[in-house]
Amino acid sequence: MTVQHSPERTTAPTPSDGEVHAAVARARDAALWWGALDFTDRKGWLLEFRSRIARTSASLIDTVREETGKPKDDALLEVMLAVEHLTWAAKNARRVLRERSVHPGLVSINHAASVRYQPMGVVGVIGPWNYPVYTPMGSLAYAMAAGNAVVFKPSELTPRTGTWLADAWASLAAPHQVLQTVTGDGRVGEALCRSGVDKLAFTGSTATAKKVMAVCAETLTPIVVEGGGKDALLVDATADLEAAATFAAFGAMGNAGQTCAGVERIYVVEEVADRFVDILTSRVRDLRVGDADDAQYGRMTLPKQVDIVRDQVEDALARGGRAVVGGLESVRAPYVDPIVLLDVPEDSSAVAEETFGPTVVVNRVRDLDEGIERANASKYGLGASVFTASKAAAERAADRLRVGVVTVNSVLGFAAVGALPFGGVGDSGFGRIHGADGLREFSRVKSVTKQRFAAPLGLVTMTRKRRDVAVARLLLTKVYGR
Ligand code: NAD
C-alpha cells in the first residue's frame, strides 16, 4: 500500500486569538481541579491516558504516517517512546515533586525548612512536525504530571496528530479539559504566547524560538526552548567500526534525517577513516526511500526543506567536498536519497547549519581530541555520540562535549530513558524536558520556613542586643573565617 501523504491537504481550523484565549481560560478551570488532585490520583489518570493511547495506537500511527510521510514502523516506535515518557512522568512525579525538608543551617537552626514544587497553572506547548507525538509528549507528560493543564499547538503540518492526543484525553475526562489542542500556524502559536499561560514549552527551530522568546518577553512568560541541532558523531581509532557505521547510518538517515538530535557531522580519526567510510557507504547506499510500506524512510515532510538540503550539498561540493554516496542528483523532491559527503570545509553550510535531511558529512581528524574540538565549534549543542573502546576516552569526551546529551557506542541513547533530562546549550536551547529536571521545569518552586522555637540569637529584630551582635561577629570570624 502506498500512503496518501499530503501535508498541503491536511486542513484544520485556525482559531482566532480570542478562541486561543478561551482555550487557555478553560484550561485554567481544569487546572484548578487537576492541580488539587494528589499525586496518586494524577498518576491514575495519566496511566489511564497512557493505556488509552497504547490500546488505540493503530489510528494514531496511521495519522502520523499520513501527516509526515514516515514509515509505519517509525511512527510506531515514536508512539512507543512517547508512552514510555508518559509512564515515567506519571510514576515519578510524587517522588520528585513532593515536599522535602532541607537542613536550615546553623544561623537558622530554630526553623524547619522545606521546598515545595507546585503546579504553575496552564502550560502552553508548541510542537514541531518531525516527531509529532514523541516530541511534544516530552513537555505534555511532564507538565501534566506536575499538576498543570496544557494547551498544545501542534505544527500546522501535523494538526490531526495533535488533535488525536487531546481527543484521547477527552475520551477519559471530558469535563476536565486538562489537555486541549489548538491547531494553526505561527500566528496561533504567537497568540498562545500572548494568552497569559504560566509557562511556554517550545520545540522547533532556533529562528522561531527567538521570535517566541521575544513575544514571551512582553509578559515575562517563562519558556523552555528545545531548538535545532547539528549533532556530531565521533569515531576513535579503537572504535568497533561496524557498529559505529551501522549506528551512524541510522542516526543520519532515520526519519529522512529529520531528527533534531540526528547525526549530521561525523569526525573520524584519520587512521580508520577509509575503512569507516567504506562500511558507512555499504550501510546507506541501498536504503529504500519512498512512500511504500517497506520504505526505510519516507519523503521530506516539509517541502521547502528539500531546497535547504540541495543548497548545502551544492555549497559543500563547490568548496571541495566529495560525495561518496549520492550527490545533487539524490535530491528528487519530495524525496532525498542518502547523501554522504567527505572532507567538507568546516565553515560550509553543510557543516555549520542544521540540514534536517538524509545527508551526513564525514571529516577526518587527527585524534579524538580534535574531533571534540570541532564538534564543540558549532553554535548548536544538542547531542553527540562517541564510538571508542577506551573507557577513559569515552569519559573524557562525555565531560568535554558542549552538549546536553552524550551517547557512547550508540546513537540517541537518551531517547527512551525517562529518567534522563533532555535539552541543549547554545542555539539548541535551554531548560530541560524529561526526567526529574523536566518535572521541575513545569513546577513553581516555593521555599517555606517554620519557626519552631525562638532564635538563640536575636538578630531579626529592631532591638538587637550588643551581646547577640558580638556572638554573630565571633561566628563570622571564627566559624566562617576558619
Ligand atoms: P518551526 O520552528 O518552523 O515550528 C515549530 C512550531 O512553532 C510550529 O508549531 C509552528 O507553527 C510554530 N511557530 C512558527 N512561528 C511561530 C511564532 N512566530 N510564534 C509562535 N509559534 C510559532 O520548526 P519545525 O519546522 O516545525 O520543526 C523542525 C525544527 O524543530 C528543527 O530545527 C528541529 O531541530 C527542531 N526540533 C527540536 C527538537 C528538540 O527537542 N530539541 C525536537 C524536534 C524538533
From TrEMBL:
An MF annotation (GO) of this entry: aldehyde dehydrogenase (NAD+) activity
Residue span, Aldehyde dehydrogenase domain: 15-448
Keywords: Oxidoreductase
InterPro entries: Ald_DH/histidinol_DH, Ald_DH_C, Ald_DH_N, Aldehyde_DH_dom, Aldehyde_DH_NAD(P)
Record flagged with keyword Oxidoreductase: yes
Family, per entry: Belongs to the aldehyde dehydrogenase family.
Protein name: Aldehyde dehydrogenase
Organism: Rhodococcoides corynebacterioides
